[in-house]
Specification:
Blueprint (H helix, E strand, L loop, with lengths): L12 H10 L5 H7 L16 H12 L1 H13 L12 H7 L6 E5 L7 H10 L3 E3 L8 E4 L5 H9 L2 E4 H10 L5
Parallel strand pairs: 1-2, 1-3, 3-4
Helix pairs in contact: 1-2
Length: 176
Amino acid sequence: MVEEGLEAPEHPCWAVAVLPDAVDEVGPRQVELLFGDRPAGMLQEVSGVGPRMAEQITAFFREPHNAEVLDELLKRVVLIETAPAEPSAAASASVLPLAGQKWVFTGGLTHLTRRDAQEKIEALGARATGSVSKSTTVVVIGEDAGSKADDAQKLGIKTMNEDELLAFLRGNGIEV
């Protein structure tokens, strides 16, 4: 279980720039969700953050060197928050093969980080989400997958392993 006590910074925009490169399995979407209007200690309640990612984030903030580097960064850098540009639904549907689909990743991947895999799927138009529901299109199952794999099976949702994901990405022109 993740310990309570992580404090969200006053200006969380630094996290969008730093955390995805600094913490395995964390992407910009999870950072935005983490530092929204939620207490930072409730990491696993954030959509897209499971136990493994929560532990990665907690470990990152517990490391004294990381805190020092981030403090220095905040003293020297001015970050400006901007809203990401959203492609139109019509343009996405006509160009991107996975437009409108929801993909979930569970367990560890060996050839890609979870963040890289999510970005590649999102480049094809899908939305990477953190929980399985009846609207989920595909669940990618990695090593030591948890309850999300069971949920997918119960709901009859298509699943694929990492090798199938890699083949799928290659077949859609995505370099892996």
